[in-house]
Model the fold of this input.
Amino acid sequence: MRLLSLPSPGLLAKTLLFVLLFGCLGQVVAVKVALDPDNWGHPEGENCVSCHEKASPGLAQQWHDSAHKVAGVNCMDCHQAEQSDADAIEHEGQIIATIVSPKDCGRCHEQEFKEQAGSVHAEAYAIIKDRIPALAHNMTGSAMQAAGCDQCHGSLVKVRGDGTLDPATWPNSGIGRINPDGSKGSCSSCHGRHAFSKAQAREPSACVRCHSGPDSPDKEVFEASKHGMLYAAQREQMNLHADTWVAGQDYTAAPTCTTCHMGAAGKIPTTHDVGLRNAWNLNQPVSYQQYLVLFEDGSKLELPATEKAPKRGTELEKADGTMAKVKAVITPDRRRKVMSLVCLECHGKGFTDAFMTQFDNVVELYNSKFGEPAEAIMASLYERGLLTPLPFDEPLEFTYWELWHDEGARARHGASMMSANHAWWEGMYLVGRNFYSRFIPQARAVAGEQAAELIDPVLASTGQHEWLGEPQQANPILGWMPPPAPAAPPVEPPVEPAEVPAAAMQLAPAAAAAAAENEEAAQ
Amino acid sequence: MIKLQAPHFITRHVLFALVAGGIGGVVFMFFLLEFDHYTSSNEFCTTCHSMTYADDSYQSTPHYNSPSGVRASCGDCHVSEGIIMATYDHAIGTKDLIKQLFGPDYDDPVVNLLHLPEAAFAARDWFRKRDSATCMRCHTLEAIQGVRANTAAIHQEETGGKTCVDCHYNLVHRHVPSEQTFKREAWNAMVEEEFGLEPGTAAQLLSSE
Done:
């Protein structure tokens, strides 16, 4: 991103993007710090170490084993603070801060700081801030925000009036932490204190604290993929401790999370903007391809590519509500291209493109068959006042949430990283089961008499739910075949306006009961 | 029989005055001892309502409740050892009494908390100027073992040029930042939040004094 700051008048936006993404051709190794060593090696550092070797020997030993120590970087170089800093404290005669923010690390690691700023990682708290109360406060209690949400997304760190850090918001090393100095993120989210080992951060385990579990099972997906299989078998050939770590050059055994999402590969430079190479957003009710908007002030924003790309120089509202001027826009195609270039280190172009097609097909199937109809049905139920706006006070809201947030995300992530099991059994199979056996029946019950108007047309418009209208199809999978002939005429389903949903309803005792009630009421 | 010849200026009156003065002096010394002892006690200090806030936090710390049963009283820490210095400290301490009587309403928990930082800074200075002498009434540096293996080593090897209070503050009373990093606005905001006051109330209270 450093090249962004160079004036490039007369260049077309496309050229600029090319320069942006591929301009640093020579720079395929991890960036060395630009700062002169005169700026570190604080004289008080030795005193810290001397005491902390006794007071917290584990921490001190980690530092002793670190590249920081070898380079002469000591405690004070990272922890020193100004008296005016909100979280400054006096400690053994020195003014320090407990929290070392990305801004602090960025004194030396300038490029990494700039790259991560505005990334989907750095914005992880800001993105969900308004959504937290529904589950963390209403449904459970605020204790869960500190122990749950904030552990991954980061907390809004509160410095109390007495200078202490509020335990409701700290300790925390969530990736989108809002630090007392205003910077966003936490380097130690992935880089374990106080050793800051390169090898540790290159391991998939650096990511699994958050990227695991029902809603983003990337750990499980990776482990169940060919990539994970090879990594597990050939870990000792990963060259994890190497100074430079370029895929295809320094290691070829297997890719890790870092390899594809951040790592240097062939011509592709390394980046600390972890979402840069993601063409899709896979964690929404409906997936969309996304632009990456780069602002003049160095911040970034992801925008759905369903809308027109913003022009250079226009003012846009950022995730935090402030306005900024657009400097450049990276299209989803361009982002996909960068990701694909990583694949090409080990795979052919045809293979890579075809894999991406398989992946895209899954996302589009999810969107059109389940995500979009479910979203439309929910919207109409809210609009008619059949659901209260309050989230999670009605069972259907949990059903819908799990449909896209857990099962739907699993299916899409499984397809994106080649775990057949997660794409299908842990993913789209559960999406289908939920959709037909819980979501639609519950939505019908909520819609009551308006079901024919609110639900049936949505299902019909997708053209993908007709199979329900053919109840006489053969059934080898469940071990029952209709008797050859003459077959008894099928039992007439209860009178319903539309064919397709009438069949769907048979799967749903709750909805059938509701419909029966409606009929009784009508009589 | 030896007859003592008193100097001729020792008249009966002088003799009487000497004896009375001597007895009076001894009585006064006993009075001072008892006075300093009493005025160093928790009971005396907390006769002012304003001091009960300091008492609350103190009672939750090991200086009040230690496993060994040793309990440090207000005066053990805040009044110097020796009758002369103890009396001096108490004499100086009367300014607190004057402030209690004629100053802001320290009995009010909000006013009390707003003024706590200045009190803490003054107390820390007091300890520092006396080389933490009152700490060392009970604690002997060479004898500090601690419960963790390295606590003794830290106290033997890392304490050069330092006095107890340089490292050990915020032990007994409510947490107050160091004077260097103290931020009045943040402190006021904390007090306002704690007592459910409108923002700006704290500054108004302080300026109206």
User: Anything to note?
Assistant: The two ends of chain A are 70 Å apart (CA to CA). Chain A has three domains: 101-187, 202-338, 349-470+494-522. The longest strand of chain A covers residues 288-295. Chain A touches chain B through 20 residues (CB under 8 Å).
